[in-house]
Write a structure and sequence with these properties.
The chain is of the alpha+beta class. The protein is built from five helices and six strands. It has a single domain, classed as Ribosomal protein L5 (50s Ribosomal Protein L5, Chain: A), CATH 3.30.1440.10. The longest helix is centred in the middle third of the chain and has 14 residues.
Length: 140
């Protein structure tokens, strides 16, 4: 399955946030280089600078990212994720959000607010197999 796996991570950084505090733990935790991110600069509602940083990993790199991510999620949160897996799907993609404040401490916590968006995509052709395949991916 690794040959068809794709992970996209997206980080929104506001002018008030310290980019290094957020990116350095990401680089360390997931063995990602700074130049692998595509960064777009835009303006917020009040004219403040907002950076949108995005990275897409495929195949083995995507699998390594997912394994590292899953290994850092607490057992309690992983069990909650598995129990509510269907709420995190769109088509055959799994959507997760991890807290930016926690990543600074090199911790992974599933959060909804102030979060790094992660999309994990793999081809699954039978709808009734989607949850099973993602649970296998996250728990192996």
């Amino acid at each position: 399955m690794a040959n068809q796996l794709e992970v996209t991570a997206e980080v929104i950084l506001h002018a008030t946030e310290d980019n290094k505090k957020i990116f350095e733990p990401i680089f360390d935790l997931f063995q990602i280089e700074e130049d692998e991110f595509i960064v777009e600069k835009t303006l917020g509602h009040y004219g403040n600078t907002i950076l949108l940083a995005r990275i897409t990993l495929v195949k083995k790199r995507a699998e390594q990212f997912v394994k590292k991510l899953a290994s850092k999620i607490s057992k309690v949160q992983m069990n909650e994720l598995i129990e509510n897996m269907d709420m995190h799907f769109e088509d055959t993609s799994l959507f997760l959000r991890i807290g930016k404040n926690e990543i600074v401490r090199k911790e992974i916590s599933l959060q909804q607010n102030n979060a790094i968006k992660i999309k994990i995509k793999m081809p699954i052709y039978k709808r009734d197999q989607i949850a099973k395949k993602y649970i296998e991916l996250l728990t192996v």
